[in-house]
Design brief:
Elements: E1 6-13, H1 16-26, E2 30-37, E3 40-49, E4 58-63, E5 76-85, H2 89-98, E6 107-109, E7 112-118, E8 124-130, E9 153-160, H3 164-172, E10 177-182, E11 185-189, E12 198-203, E13 217-224, H4 227-241, E14 249-250, E15 255-260, E16 266-271, H5 299-305
Parallel strand pairs: 1-4, 5-8, 9-12, 13-16
Antiparallel strand pairs: 1-13, 2-3, 3-4, 5-9, 6-7, 7-8, 10-11, 11-12, 14-15, 15-16
The structure holds zinc ion.
Zinc ion (ZN) binds at residues 8, 10, 219, 221, 268.
Length: 310
């Protein structure tokens, strides 16, 4: 079955060890891949997700030890939001108090309960409590009880000057439809309730432009089932919107093209295949440092410069 929606979100972080601690020990996600930034192999690329690293569950980071903090502004992702079962928001509020995680009072958006919080780099995150997802599988390798565990992405929100140009890409190319408006928020959904099926646009004219740095989202990737589906999206972008993508890049676990959408956020189209079990078994995902074939000859040098993470 073909699903639209968010494939992964990639952000910039400070020290790798602190990043691993927060996402695995506080949020209870699985580290599903430990590899390097293919364009900068002296630094990590860390992937967190559910047991298999399924599309719609994957948050990835480029951790740089001495990164300068980013500044929120127009043309970037404002918040990255996870789904949790409706009855677990109280558990998470207690957990954040216990573990000293900066968080805000509960609020309602589009009728849903939202718990906003920040990671150690100031990345803006939130949990949304949803009914009817308790039975979805959860990663049970952390100390978060399965009944409360994160079930992939709920949404991202984009902070933009205007909703319509970006909305046109979401609806025409990525299979979303405008679903609701509330205050300055416009909600787009894929309609099939799967993970990562929502994008909110927050209209905020007059803000300063974003400055990318620690805590900033670098890009948002959307799903394509395979190369043919991706190629069809690339054609639509060119024919209907005059947007050219990069050439396809092989990211080992998916194949990607990139483009800057009209609101200036970097978007990616990533294939669902082959997935994270392409180079190691599901049981031991994330344990060994994995390198793409073109970097294997440099493994010793790469391992020498990467900081220890656990
Ligand atoms: Zn990506």
């Amino acid at each position: 079955m073909v699903h639209n929606g968010i494939h992964h979100v990639t952000a910039i972080a400070g020290p790798a060890r602190r990043n691993v601690d927060f996402y695995t020990r506080v949020l209870g996600l699985r580290l599903v891949k430990k590899t390097v930034n293919f364009d900068d192999p002296g630094s990590y690329h860390l992937y967190y997700g559910d047991e298999h690293g399924g599309p719609g569950t994957i948050l990835t980071f480029f951790p740089w030890e001495h990164v300068a903090p980013g500044r929120l502004g127009i043309g970037e992702t404002q918040e990255t939001v996870f789904r949790v079962p409706e009855g677990s928001i109280g558990y998470w509020t207690h957990r954040f108090v216990d573990k000293g995680v900066a968080h805000q009072a509960l609020e309602k958006r589009f009728g849903e309960t939202v718990l906003s919080f920040k990671d150690p780099d100031g990345m803006r995150l939130a949990l949304v409590g949803l009914p009817g997802i308790e039975a979805e599988p959860a990663w049970t390798g952390s100390d978060v009880p399965a009944e409360y565990a994160i079930r992939g992405f709920h949404s991202v929100s984009l902070l933009l000057e205007d909703a319509a140009p970006t909305g046109a890409i979401l609806t025409d190319v990525f299979g979303f439809a405008e679903a609701a408006r509330e205050g300055s928020l416009v909600r787009y959904t894929t309609g099939d309730k799967v993970q990562g099926g929502i994008v909110d646009i927050r209209i905020a004219g007059g803000f300063l432009p974003a400055r990318m740095g620690g805590g900033s989202v670098h890009h948002v990737a959307f799903r394509a089932a395979d190369d043919a589906a991706q190629a069809a999206m690339v054609s639509k972008l060119a024919d209907n919107h005059g947007i050219q993508t990069t050439e396809q890049k092989d990211r080992n676990y998916f194949r990607s093209v990139y483009f800057r959408e009209p609101g200036r956020v970097l978007f990616e189209i990533a294939t669902d295949e082959p997935g994270f079990a392409a180079d190691e078994p599901v049981e031991s995902l994330g344990e060994a440092l994995k390198l793409p074939p073109f970097l294997e000859p440099r493994r010793q040098d790469i391992e020498a410069v990467l900081p220890a993470v656990a």
